[in-house]
Amino acid sequence: MRKALVVFLILIAGAVVAADRFGVLVVQDQIGKQVAAQYDLPRQPDVKIHGFPFLTQAIGGEYERIDVALGDYTQQNVTVRDVRSDSRSVLAYAHADAFGLVMSFLQERNATGEERMQRMTRELVDAAIATGGSFYLPYRLHATNEQLRRAYPDWNAAMQAKDRYDPKHIFQNGLYETYGRA
């Protein structure tokens, strides 16, 4: 009798865990479908609900964390990219998992067009910095020196390291020439 009770309890525990895991899969799929429908996405995003057990989170209405990953998504010449935290680079683009916006613009190829693009880029860089973000360095060199140093506070340290390893300044590019040394 005792053995049968132990087996029964193990089966019940297994069924509860299986129901929890099945429940999280169903809800993740439903969230993905709803997000795709609400934002008219071309494909369903990947959804990950963190924490165990899921069922107690669902009953309580509070979740540890829910991640929705779009992958690359383009709408109206703006691509949204999933950007992972970079803790290794001196001039890290992302200090936390985030999303990046890659924008394509049609620009007049003359001095007026270039001036407009520079002004708009600086406004976008200010907006990114104001929300705790940064901008991708190799793109157009329109940011001001002050904007670059606000978005990349370790810039001077990186340039000092460059001076140590390349004292004759053999390796240079437009970014280095524009924003200079420490």
Helices, by number, come to 6
Main pleated-sheet profile: 3 strands, antiparallel
Mean pLDDT: 86
End-to-end gap? 79 Å
Beta-strand content estimate: 5-15%
Order of helices and strands: HEHEEEEHHHH
The domain count comes to 2
Residues in helix, %:
40-55%
Care to count the β-strands? 5
What do these coordinates show?
By secondary structure, this protein is of the alpha+beta class. The chain is 48% helix and 14% strand. The protein is built from 6 helices and 5 strands, in the order αβαββββαααα. It has a 3-stranded antiparallel β-sheet with strand order 3-4-5, with no helix packed on it. A two-stranded antiparallel ribbon has the order 1-2. The relative contact order is 0.07.
Features:
182 residues; alpha+beta; 2 domains; three-stranded antiparallel sheet; two-stranded antiparallel ribbon; 48% helix
